[in-house]
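Weekly puzzle thread! Below is a chain. First person to post its structure in token form gets bragging rights.
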Amino acid sequence: MLMSSDARPLADRQAEKQAARQAEVLAALEAHGDEAGYFEPLGADHAALFTDEGTTLLVTFETFDACRRDGDGMPMGQKLAAAQGWSSLCLLAEGSTWFRDRAVFGFFDRQVDDAFFEDFDRVIFWGANMCGYAAAAFSVTAPGATVILAAPQATLDPVVTGWDNRFTDRRRMDFTSRYGYGPDMIEGAGPVYLIYDPRSAPDAMHAALFTKPFVHKLACPFLGPMPARILSEMSILEPLIVAAGREDFTPGVFWKLYRARHRCRPWLRRMTQWLDQRNRVFLAALATRAAAERVEDGQFVDRLAELEAMLEEAGGSLPPALPTPKPPPAL
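Winning reply:
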């Protein structure tokens, strides 16, 4: 039997590997900052990476964990902006901080004092989930910015959102002081686009708290609790941010891009499972057949056979299949 030359416990080896990856990513961020702008640690759990390229600025809120999962360790926002010749400002968090840190507050205070955002022709803020909260909260520092939020929390203050039981361990965090309540902090922004799944009750309730007239709510059933991941899988996250940077983004543009959901396996699974769970056999069979025609997935094929057998047993059947539509042209 072959034995590993490293006799240490697996947990120790994994911790060492994780620490090495953390150091590798940190070194890459620092090197990029030295070359193209700056990399600034903000307290123990946050940092800012700025790349100075063009007159459009993309501000993203992301996590170190996402950088470590990626091959080159760079934030998504930095790479997207670089591809467009834009400047980028990426705020990074270590863990579930919601960016509620005085060091982060002080960083944005300095940008306001220095009139930093006024140096750019266009400014776009992006964030999802926890990072969506931060994008909303700190967008107040850049009046007129376009803000794109995906399933953001409005606040975790239990006085306001005590019905949200997903983050009970974070309820002691301060959401009532500076840069606190997301729906108030977008005051002064340009258009705000809020993407969420209305079938996720907590996400829909947070979205309902954003009541400003310039908020465009884009309700996307079956998008799920991690919208950025699914939008990326649909290959539409980058195009929608690019459209915002070109001042071409509208709800109509979003819905045209969002047609890609009909070829997205996670979205199709969520939609067909919802029909299954409600015992809508005929509709579930139609949807499952369409899914099986669009993506390669044995689960759809197997479930379609089961549903067709159920219909046949009940004396029914599916109508003949229509020709599979072609994917929509790229914008």
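Puzzle host: Confirmed. Bonus trivia for everyone else. Residues 155 and 181 are 6 Å apart (CA to CA).
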